[in-house]
Design brief:
binds flavin-adenine dinucleotide, globular, TIM Barrel, 8-stranded parallel barrel, alpha/beta
Length: 279
Amino acid sequence: MSRKKPRISFEYFPPKTEQGKDKLLNVTTPTLNELNPEFFSVTYGAGGSTRDTTLGVVSAIRETGIDVAPHLSFGGDDENTINALLETYRERGIKRLVALRGDMPSGMGTAMQMVYANELVAFVRERTGDHFNIEVAAYPEIHPEAESYDSDIRFLKGKFDAGANSAITQYFFNVEAYFYFLDQCAANGIDQPIYAGIMPIVNFDNLLRFSRNCGAEIPRWICQRMAVYAGDQDSMRKFGIEVVTQLCQTLLDSGAPGIHFYTMNQVEPTREICNNLNL
Ligand code: FAD
């Protein structure tokens, strides 16, 4: 029996400069698109800080006929602003969204009321019916603010009950955490696909810093190995590709429905990993 081809997708963040945008649209996207992803996605800055840049990149990619999904969160925006953005996306032929609560921008204190992702999903469904395929976030190592493992899964179920179609996980390096999480989701009545979010290692120091905030664990053996290679960019790069290729291979061999790559707006190492996997 032949297995269904795994879904792959690629995530970007909106570039800060025109030069960065130019490279993303004219070099990175056509190159990664050769790998036949189901879609690209573009992150959304908390509090609407990238409202225009996310929209700009998403629209430019869509104009080339490629499927692309904007990430979206309420941040501090009111319903009219989010509604107008949804309408604009609809008019521009966007059919998929990644719906999030987002994080409080630093310096905002408690000034902004956070709208949970399940509420955003319900809002999108209420305003736009079935137009959008809605992805939500899931956390195999559990969201850092979650009250408990069980409550986090319950709230994920709430996002599906509100109308989400599938989930993409926070990145992780522990395969067991992902498959245990899938089992727990299934036991809680979640039967929608949960795609593995994978972070190719582009800059290990940045990854360490970022992982502390988002609650993703970098296994000790990877840290130890990277420490040996400190200063030797080539060895770090090669080891990073080897580790992430192996991680993805194990995920796919064990039945993960697909992989969402956090590309960091770079062709490599995502392309090399996909090629290693024959994706
Ligand atoms: P929620 O699902 O709303 O959960 C947030 C927390 O509240 C969890 O601890 C949960 O247990 C709890 N909770 C959930 N619902 C309820 C409820 N109804 N009542 C009480 N508690 C509840 N961030 C960005 O700023 N921009 C992006 O573009 C972006 N893209 C991402 C893409 C992916 C695939 C992932 C995995 C994360 C992304 N993030 C992004 C990060 C994300 O915004 C943060 O992790 C944020 O802290 C939580 O967002 P969420 O949608 O998972 O929140």
